[in-house]
Design the sequence.
C-alpha cells in the first residue's frame, strides 16, 4: 500500500472560503475540511474592498489545523480565488491598500474610456475576453484616473491568489490563468498584450513574466512555517482562477467537456485546445480564459446565484430569514413561468433590494409581479435555467460535435431543483458534482507538480472514481421550449452587463 500524500487546497470564492486537505492514497482522493469561513467586502470611505486581513487569518488557521492533522505527509499548498481583482505593492513589498472588490462602482464609465482609446472590437481581438464592467482593465483605468497617487507608488501588481502566495513565501508571481481574466492578456501570443497596455496608458512596470499552473512558487517562509508547523512545505502556483481549477476537476474523459461552474456567478462553457476569437465569438460575447496546460475555457459569465444570495440578504435584513433547504419547496408551490427576468440585466449587478429589482423588471416588461418569496425564487430559478439554455444554443455551434452532457460543479450543483430545470431547458442530461470540484482541481494540479499523476485526464479519472455525481434527465421539454421563446423576447433588453 502506498503511503498517503496530502495536498492542501486554499479555495476562495466571492462569498466564502475554505481550506481543504486532499488526501491521496495512491488510488482515490478524500477531501477533509480544515476551515470554512465567510468572505465579506470591507466597506471603507473610498469604496468596497476585500478584507484580506480577515481572509489571511482564516487561511492560516486552516493551514495550522491541516498541519496538526497531517504533519509531514503534507506535500504542498495551492491557492485559487475569484478572478480579476488585484493588490498593488510598493518597492518595499508593502500592500498599498486593500484590494478593491470587483463590484465597486469606481469602474463606471471606464469601458467607454477604454473604447475611446481603442475600439471595442480591437480590444476583443487582442484578448478574446467578454466585456464585463469589473475586468482588471477597467479597474486599472479607474486606478490611473481616480487613484493616481496610489498607482504611482506601485511597483508590483499581484492578483489575489498571487498576493496570498507572496505573503506565504515572499516570492512574487503572476500566474497565467488568473492573468487571463484581466482583459490584458493575449491568448494567441501567451503573454501580456503590451500594445494594448500602452494604448490604455497603464504602467508597463506592473506586468511581469507570467508563470504556468504547476510552477513551484517557493517554501513557506521560515517564521510562518515554524508557527504553523509547515517546515519544508512547498507552495505551488496552481491555476489561480477558481474556475480554471473547477474545470480541471471535472469527472469526465470527454475531449470537449461542457461545464457550468455554479456559484455567485455561473460560468458556462466548453474546454478547447485553442482560443476562438472571430467575428461570431465577438458578436456572441464569449470569453477565452486559460486553464491548466494552456487549455482554453471558452465560456460566458452569467449572473448566477448572486440573485438568490442577495434576495436572502434582503429578506434577512427585514427580519425574515429563508433557509436554503426550504427554497425548492417554496418555489414548487408557485405556478410555472408566471414571471421571468433576464439575469444579466444591468440592474441586477449591484447589491441591495434584489426582490424589488426583480419585481420592477417584471412590471417594466408587463408580466405578473412576483410578490411571495416562493414566486421570486421560482422566477430566479426558471430564468437562470432559460439563460443557460440560450447560451448553450450558441455555445454548441463552436464545436463539431455537441457535448451530450453538461457537468455542473460548485456550490450550485447541490441545488436539485435548479439542476432539474437546467436539464429541462437544455434538453440534455445534467451531471451534478462533485461539490468541491474547484478544490479537487487545485489538488490534482499539485499532484501533477509532484509527479504522482502524469496528466489532467488521469487526475479527472481519479476524481470520477473518488466522488459520486447525480444525473438529472430532461423532463417537460415542450413546455420549456415554449418558455424559451418568451425568455428570448425579454433578452432584447439593452441593459445587459456586456
Sequence:
Amino acid at each position: 500500500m502506498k503511503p498517503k500524500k496530502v495536498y492542501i487546497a486554499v479555495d476562495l470564492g466571492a462569498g466564502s472560503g475554505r481550506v481543504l486537505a486532499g488526501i491521496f492514497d495512491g488510488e482515490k482522493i478524500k477531501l477533509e475540511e480544515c476551515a470554512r469561513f465567510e468572505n465579506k467586502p470591507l466597506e471603507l470611505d473610498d469604496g468596497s474592498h476585500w478584507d484580506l486581513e480577515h481572509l489571511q487569518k482564516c487561511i492560516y488557521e486552516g493551514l495550522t489545523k491541516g498541519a496538526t492533522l497531517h504533519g509531514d505527509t503534507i506535500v504542498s499548498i495551492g491557492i485559487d480565488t475569484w478572478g480579476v481583482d488585484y493588490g498593488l505593492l510598493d518597492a518595499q513589498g508593502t500592500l498599498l491598500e486593500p484590494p478593491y472588490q470587483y463590484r465597486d462602482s469606481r469602474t463606471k464609465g471606464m469601458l467607454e474610456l477604454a473604447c475611446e482609446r481603442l475600439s471595442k472590437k480591437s480590444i476583443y481581438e487582442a484578448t478574446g475576453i467578454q466585456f464585463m464592467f469589473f475586468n482588471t482593465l477597467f479597474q486599472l483605468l479607474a486606478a490611473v484616473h481616480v487613484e493616481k497617487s496610489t498607482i504611482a507608488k506601485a511597483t508590483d501588481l499581484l492578483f489575489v491568489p498571487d498576493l496570498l502566495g507572496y505573503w506565504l513565501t515572499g516570492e512574487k508571481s503572476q500566474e497565467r490563468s488568473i492573468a487571463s481574466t484581466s482583459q490584458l492578456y493575449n491568448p494567441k501570443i501567451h503573454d501580456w498584450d503590451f500594445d494594448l497596455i500602452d494604448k490604455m496608458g497603464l504602467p508597463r512596470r506592473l506586468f511581469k513574466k507570467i508563470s504556468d499552473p504547476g510552477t513551484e512558487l517557493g517554501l513557506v517562509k521560515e517564521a510562518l512555517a515554524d508557527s504553523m508547523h509547515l517546515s519544508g512545505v512547498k507552495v505551488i502556483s496552481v491555476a489561480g482562477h477558481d474556475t480554471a481549477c473547477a474545470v480541471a476537476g471535472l469527472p469526465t474523459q470527454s475531449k470537449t467537456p461542457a461545464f457550468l461552474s455554479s456559484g455567485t456567478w455561473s460560468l458556462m462553457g466548453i474546454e478547447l485546445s485553442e482560443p476562438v476569437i472571430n467575428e461570431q465569438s465577438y458578436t456572441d460575447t464569449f470569453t477565452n480564459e486559460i486553464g491548466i496546460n494552456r487549455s482554453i475555457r471558452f465560456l460566458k459569465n452569467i449572473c448566477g446565484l448572486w440573485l438568490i444570495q442577495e434576495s436572502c440578504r434582503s429578506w434577512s435584513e427585514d427580519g425574515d430569514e429563508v433557509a436554503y433547504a426550504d427554497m425548492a419547496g417554496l418555489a414548487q408551490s408557485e405556478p410555472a413561468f408566471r414571471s421571468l427576468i433576464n439575469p444579466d440585466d444591468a440592474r441586477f449587478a449591484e447589491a441591495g433590494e434584489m426582490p424589488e429589482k426583480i419585481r420592477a423588471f417584471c412590471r417594466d416588461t408587463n408580466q405578473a409581479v412576483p410578490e411571495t418569496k416562493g414566486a421570486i425564487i421560482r422566477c430566479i430559478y426558471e430564468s437562470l435555467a432559460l439563460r443557460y439554455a440560450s447560451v448553450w444554443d450558441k455555445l454548441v455551434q463552436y464545436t463539431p460535435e455537441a457535448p451530450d452532457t453538461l457537468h455542473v460543479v460548485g456550490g450550485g450543483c447541490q441545488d436539485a431543483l435548479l439542476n432539474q430545470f437546467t436539464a429541462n431547458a437544455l434538453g440534455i442530461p445534467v451531471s451534478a458534482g462533485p461539490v468541491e470540484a474547484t478544490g479537487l482541481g487545485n489538488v490534482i494540479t499539485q499532484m501533477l507538480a509532484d509527479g504522482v499523476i502524469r496528466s489532467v485526464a488521469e487526475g479527472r479519472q481519479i476524481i470520477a472514481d473518488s466522488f459520486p455525481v447525480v444525473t438529472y434527465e430532461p423532463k417537460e421539454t415542450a413546455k420549456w421550449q415554449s418558455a424559451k421563446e418568451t425568455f428570448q423576447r425579454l433578452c432584447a433588453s439593452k441593459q445587459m452587463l456586456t
In short: Residues 224 and 272 are 40 Å apart (CA to CA). Confidence is low (pLDDT under 50) at residues 494-498. DSSP finds 19 helices and 21 strands in the chain. The two ends are 53 Å apart (CA to CA).
